[in-house]
Amino acid sequence: MAEPKTKYDRQLRIWGEQGQAALEKASICLLNCGPTGSETLKNLVLGGVGSITIVDGSKVEPGDLGNNFMVDESSLEQSKAKCVCSFLQELNDAVKAKFIEEYPEALINTNPSFFSQFTLVVATQLVEESMVKLDRICREANVMLIFARSYGLTGLVRISVKEHTVIESKPDHFLDDLRLNNPWPELREFAEAIDLNVQDPVAHKHIPYVVILVNMADEWRKSHGGTLPSTREEKREFKELLKARMVSMDEDNYKEAIDASFKLFATPGIGSDLLQIINDSCAEVGSSSSDFWVMVAALKEFIANEGGREAPLEGSIPDMTSSTEHYVNLQKLYQAKSEADFLVIEQRVRNILKKIGKDPDSITKATIKSFCKNARKLKVCRYRPVEDEYNNPSLPELQKYLTDEDYRSISIDCCQEKHLVSIAVGFYILLRAVDRYAANFNSFPGQFDGGMDEDISRLKTTAVSLLNDLGCNGLTLTEDLINEMCRFGAAELHAVAAIIGGIASQEVIKLITKQFVPLSGTYIFNGIDQKSQLLTLY
Amino acid sequence: MAEAASTPSKSRDLDKLLLRPGNLVDPNFEPGTELRLALQEQVKVLVVGAGGLGCELLKDLALSGFKNLEVIDMDRIEVTNLNRQFLFRLEDVGKPKAEVAAKRVMERVKGVNIVPHFCRIEEKDNEFYSDFHIIALGLDSIEARSYINAVACSFLEYDSDDNPREETATPMVDGGTEGFKGHARVIKPGFTPCFECTIWLFPPQVKFPLCTLAETPRNAPHCIEYAHLIKWNEVHGGKAFDPDNSDHMKWVYDEAVKRAELFGIPGVTYSLTQGVVKNIIPAIASTNAIISAACALETLKIVSGCSKTLSNYLTYNGVEGLHTKVTEFVRDKDCLVCGPGVLVELDTTVTLQKFIDMLEEHPKLLMSKASIRYRGKNLYMQAPPVLEEMTRSNLSLPLYDLMDKVPKDILHATGTINKDNKKSSGLRKLRVVFKGIDGVTDMDMAGGA
């Protein structure tokens, strides 16, 4: 057996040992193992999730062989859950795989406590009524829930979790924390000790831009009543000053200083996202508060006191042209300040824990350190109950999406006028309409051949009444899209299922590792021209 | 259709799209069992690459109604593939990817035939590639994409009005991933931008300047690259560094650690050393699954016409929430790979010298001091002097002979372009057609090979 670390090398580079450990501890429940469910689990089993439990009461039919890779000829007429489970187990023997031959709807109705044993439930191909019930159960039991559905050339993915907090959100692009316009005393001292007018040209071109900008900012302040450049004209002038300091055209450090000068012009203090988090009512902590919010409370105190309106320093600096000595010393300086900030926050965390009657050592040093390093990137995601969204969708939001310019691709009739609306929003409405349809007529429109015209007119009536119930009076969907929805006839195409399942598994990983940011709202897949859309109907 | 409903069919779900008429479909879409049969029996799809994307593509295409697939890949299976290349098992390590992938899919999906090719893509000739209706690319290098793109574009022919002839265009679908991000695109040479038209989407990899590595290292990767690129050659002289040799990798790691200690630089680990030296791009199963399936779905739609298609570039980013975006890139009309080039009609008697003189007068070219290349061969080079001397004797020969008496083909000319009284150097594609040759009438002067 090869070392598991080697097998997982390419993903460990993304979510690290901690993320992997979280995956290996997780237990996932899958409802319905058609291609959408099977593909979701395939990606999770490969990644080494702890355990999977497959719930499906159906037997394998010939049609399943044409859209699901986790069954074959020998599976015909056998339990689908059993067959899929055994093929998935082949992919990774480190995963504990089991199955329950039962229909998910039956479990939802008769045994709701069943779901509380899991870290996360992936519910595929459920209709609205079951979604709403399962959502209530999972919220009650604090089990994370993801809905995934493939339907012809459309589908959806939606997360339902009361609250998901992220420390390591790992954004691609994030402005580094250099404190150029607000240097702490040691940084200022360090910068002042380096002479920008040094005669030696080699030394001159190896002064790191951080030092150049801190010193030049001081020089500017002296001649501008203590303020930094703020107008466009002043900023331009400042850059000219930098340019004038170059002794030759090949000085990369000065070019970097000019490019980075916008960092100097930025407003000091924390950003609006973080401000919103520290002002969240959850930051008023009590005995039932999570570790995350306890740390936020400590962060809030820090920002108001020692931090001087700033979050704790991140402590890392980007690569920049510099002599090795200057760079290494600069790095140490940032790390030292970061460590000092951490110690202050740690003390505050311990005090708060004591105050709310918890063990002051119940949050580890490593967790607090990670929290401090990522303080500016914290994320809080909250998801509305499905029932709530379905009964009271945010009308202005829905209207906005219905007419979003970026996604306008087909026409609808509204108040005798032709408007172009997004296919994806049309699918959002129609995915709900087909469930209403199925509740009334016991099959999906176009599920069986023959009678297509009747199905189309019934679906149209259903969609119109749904739109009326939502308050979108007078708005109808195009005939084209309704016809297409009937043509799909609830087909679960493999390629669409692999996309939907792939998205669902990516979101599962983000939720379980508590890294990166899961999607907000409902993702509507549009397989016609791939102009899919994320709808946040809050 | 009633028949399809009564007999249990493996094609149950796909039939809804292939047998029923639709409203948002390609104008040429003709639903019916004949279409389904055509996908199964006539259409040949090539999958290039049997790695993270390729494994998924083979599965997805096999379950999308295609029965004649071929796959080409030169690699063997490694342990680090197993977290995402789901057709491979631990006991397969060391075996050719293409062969194992083909075998596994054929075992699972009855009736599908997959021909594996365990070789480099360059080892196959154009005839091999011309046999496919569509090519799906699951590659991780720009060079390989460029190569296949050039091959597919070489099948494209233009008419005398510089309009691409649709029936000669071999479409491609292309995917790529990195971590939680990826892209899927559709390329129909002559109609949508080819890989070279938008080559700027793939910025060249940033390399550290050697002076930084040698004189002012600042971080761990600088120390690693010093050991890998400078110290290795100093110590081992002629012996080539092999990134797959663990002794070599360990040596580079040890040297990088020493250098890092010398300069007080933190962060050198064995894993980082591998990452930097091999330029490892992190990869996970879910993103590969999404991107491959998007490519497979587009393949199905392009071939069958059962719906509209992606136009023409999809990006997926799951890092912060989920952002997907479709961008309609535009063709580069002067693209040297997929563009028509400039049509030049010649008599078979025209010498190379005369031809070069003509380029100076040609209204669409105005190119002086041209150097001419044909199929990778220098016909005449203005510089350097050695090459000029070697090729000078060609000037007096008829171009027709120099082009092996091929009645129509593509030439490349480099020279000084005099446009609007400005001089600039440029490379131009020329579609040369010789007049009065059998098989080429005045109405059929299309270029291309």
Please explain how this structure is put together.
- The complex is a heterodimer of chains A (538) and B (449).
- With 538 residues, chain A is of the alpha/beta class.
- Chain A folds into 4 domains: 4-164 and 494-535, Rossmann fold; 185-265, no CATH class; 272-380, no CATH class; 392-488, no CATH class.
- Helices cover 50% and strands 12% of the residues of chain A.
- In chain A, the strands form 3 sheets. Chain A has an 8-stranded mixed beta sheet with strand order 3-2-1-4-5-6-12-13, sandwiched between helices. Chain A has a 3-stranded antiparallel beta sheet with strand order 10-9-11. In chain A, strands 7-8 form a two-stranded antiparallel sheet.
- The longest helix of chain A has 32 residues, at 324-355.
- Chain A is elongated.
- Chain B folds into 3 domains: 2-202 and 284-327, Rossmann fold (3-Layer(aba) Sandwich), CATH 3.40.50; 214-277, Orthogonal Bundle (Arc Repressor Mutant, subunit A); 342-434, Structural Genomics Hypothetical 15.5 Kd Protein In mrcA-pckA Intergenic Region, Chain A.
- In chain B, strand 7 and strand 8 (323-327) form a beta hairpin.
- In chain B, helix 4 packs across helix 12 (285-304), helix 9 (220-236) crosses helix 10 and helix 9 (220-236) packs across helix 11 (270-277).
- Chain B is globular.
- The interface between A and B is large, with 88 and 81 residues.
List the helices and strands and how they pair.
The complex is a heterodimer of chains A (538) and B (449).
Chain A: H1 4-7, H2 9-25, E1 27-31, H3 35-47, E2 51-55, H4 62-65, H5 80-91, E3 96-100, H6 104-110, E4 120-124, H7 128-141, E5 144-151, E6 154-160, E7 163-166, H8 185-192, H9 201-204, H10 209-223, H11 232-244, H12 252-265, H13 272-278, H14 291-304, H15 324-355, H16 365-373, E8 379-382, H17 386-391, H18 395-402, E9 408-414, E10 417-422, H19 423-441, H20 452-469, E11 475-476, H21 479-488, H22 494-513, E12 522-526, E13 533-535
Helix pairs in contact in A: 3-5, 3-22, 8-10, 10-12, 11-12, 14-15, 15-16, 19-20, 20-21
Chain B: H1 2-6, H2 12-18, H3 33-41, E1 44-48, H4 52-62, E2 68-72, H5 97-108, E3 113-117, H6 126-130, E4 134-138, H7 142-154, E5 172-178, E6 181-187, H8 210-215, H9 220-236, H10 246-263, H11 270-277, H12 285-304, E7 313-317, E8 323-327, E9 342-346, H13 352-361, E10 367-374, E11 377-380, H14 385-391, H15 399-402, E12 408-419, E13 422-434
Helix pairs in contact in B: 4-12, 9-10, 9-11, 10-11
